[in-house]
Amino acid sequence: MFRPRWKKVLADIWGHKLRSFLVIASITIGLFAVGLITSMNIIIKKDMETGYMSVNPANIQVFSTPFDQELVNAVRKVDGVKQAEGVRTMTLRYKNGKGEWVPIGIKAIPDIGQMEINQVRLEEGVWPPKDRQIAIDRYKFADLPVGIGGTIQVELPSGKIREIPVVGVVHDQTIGSGGGGGFFLAPVQGYVTYNTLDWLESPVSMNRLYVTVQQNPNDKTHLQEIANKVINRVENSSGMVISSQVRSSNDHPNRVYVEAITAVLVVLGFLVMFLSAFLITNTLAALLNQQVNHIGVMKTIGASRGQIIGIYMALIFVYGLTAFIIALPLAGWAAYTLMGYFAQAINIVLQGFRIEPAVFWIEIGIALIVPQLAGIVPILNGTRISVVEALSGISQANPQDKKTWWDRKLEGIRGLSRPTILSLRNTFRRKGRLFLTLFTLMLGGAIFIGTFNVQRSLTNYIGRIGHYFLADVTFNLVDNARISEIESLIKEIPGVSQVEGWAAMAGVLQKPDGTAGESVNLLGPPSASTLVDPVVLEGRWIQPGDKAVIVVNERFRETFPDLQPGDSVKIKIAGKDEVVQVIGFFQMAGKSGGYLAYTTYEYLSNVMHEKNRANSFRVVADSQNLSIDQQKALGREIEAKLKAKGYRVSEVEAGLSLTATTANGLNILTGFLLMMAVMIAIVGSIGLTGTMSLNVLERTREIGILRAIGASDGAVMRLVMVEGLLIGVMSWFFGVILAFPISSLMSNAITLALFGAPADFTFTPLGVILWLVVVLLLSVLASVGPARNATRLTIREVLAYE
Length: 802
What we know:
Blueprint: H1 4-14, H2 17-53, E1 60-67, H3 69-76, E2 81-95, E3 101-109, E4 121-125, E5 134-137, E6 151-155, E7 161-171, E8 188-193, E9 206-213, H4 220-236, E10 241-246, H5 255-289, H6 292-300, H7 305-345, H8 357-384, H9 387-392, H10 405-411, H11 418-427, H12 431-465, E11 473-482, H13 483-490, E12 496-510, E13 516-524, E14 535-539, E15 549-553, H14 555-559, E16 568-573, E17 576-587, E18 596-598, H15 601-607, E19 613-621, H16 628-644, E20 649-654, H17 655-662, H18 664-698, H19 700-708, H20 713-755, H21 765-792, H22 795-799
Parallel strand pairs: 3-8, 5-7, 13-18, 15-17
Antiparallel strand pairs: 1-9, 1-10, 2-3, 2-6, 2-9, 4-7, 5-8, 6-7, 11-19, 11-20, 12-13, 12-16, 12-19, 14-17, 15-18, 16-17
């Protein structure tokens, strides 16, 4: 047999199912939000590192002039080296599903069936491919015109077309690890046997060296020391190092995007913690206020204050535990599902569904501690009143006729209907609960609006990336050509107004001690070029008359935090050490894009001994604001013209395509933020519905009295709706104000992770308008449902409602 006090707990839970459901739902949604965000934060970081390390990624990559297996064997004997493998990498062009000739990166692997470094995983089809067959990485597999079993057309350096069967789809987590433009700028990736090289008109030799180290694979300083030894061995073998890269075994190529996502999750987690706490506090305060008469009855029959406190603490414990049991697996499942989408987009492998121990303890801690803390004050206040006060509802300490300044102002309002004035007074009758309700809703609204503001800031920045690609068409030749000849030829095409030749070269940063550092891609537009409009963070951009100067991207800030405008650095270009002065820092597509620097064409072409010649050109049309299709059509005309004159074209890109490709990583983040905005809206929606439904349930007897004195069901409905709308509008107004600091906090968290510097904050009315619509709609729905239920009861039933 249960003791009477436990029967009371069970009666409160089971006897008032709707009220119990609302309380449990409010606690559950708070726990769910915290668990979802915490799970996502842990899963994405842990699985990124675990999955990447499982493929044995190269710690050192060296791109050099051609070498053979003898050099690979020599590198394996270098002190500190664990493994070494050589591959051949090249870029050709293939015809995609739209009939366009676009780049494809091809990796020829000597012992393709026994890869030890930078391993790939078969997802579908056959691995390894046989000679004159190709396997394609999954990331851009959809761009191919065929599936497994079909053939793709590949253009060889001579212009000849080969048809290669596609036999498998693989997953390569190391794409972008070798520097360059990173994962999102990488073209379609294909994998062939070493024996296929000759068939593809490529030298049968290696040009890229993969190395792993024996110890400390996550120590960048140690890795660079081993890299220097490897580079020396390559150069002592008469090879020339074009570029090099060191990377920790846990340093996934898309780490910066994961860091940006986790930065948002940390901020959201902190804010949702508060949202959850206030949601639970408000719900329990509303619940316990309905129990005042019960407390009076229990005191009348001899219950002590301690016993009453124990009953309600036990009731809250059951609510919290039930909510935890529901929220824990639900949050874990939702987190794993959402991360499944982003894992595909940012090239990581999830390690399977599981409930993280940290998430378990955080959720159970919130479930068992926060509700108790939220309920202790109203419990203590409720059990402190006398039997007379509890049964009569009249507090001696706080007489009902004691009116505040605000109450008197409300009573002085004229010109409104009596039901409307009653709604106003009811709204502010319990100011403590009103504050909790408003704070809960305004915090949820501020987070919702903030995600849209941050998303707009990133979208605007994506637009700024286009200022680095102001040309309508960019094309590259296989060999350098005289600029004046190409310019004269291209201007024969109707609609072309401007042609610029740019210099481009990969260099290797040299440390003060003379050892090699990271690779850097150098771009050399003419000093007076108008085809690039950069975002300069510090210092200045290149100008006519500049010599031996560079402007570097945000990636340099991460590796060289002490580097300042005016400092000099040494870069090995075309085998020769060049001392250049850093005159500024610019912001582009994030730190994952590798080391990028701009200098003048005049300087770089002179260093390369290619004055007045180039292999990279920018073309501007007469007409402004060409569409991407018009740019592509112009590109096809340019390519046809060049081929007719005997020039070999390696790549043709529309300007808008380059912008979209560069912004792919940032688009992932904007999509993530929109998803978070929807999640916060759902959390706020359920929380709002629960708290306002409890408010209406608490006034069921008042509704009965109004009906008893002649109020119609419609009047009662309007009374409740006006109150709900007032609360919704007030929470929206204060939420808009709170959204400014929250937006700034979230924006800075993302941009510092991506760029190492805060980006310009942008406010968009979209989030404000959407949240107003959401909060008004929910205010009505949350109020009308319980009010309709109350109006269906008879007056006798309503007046007898506890």
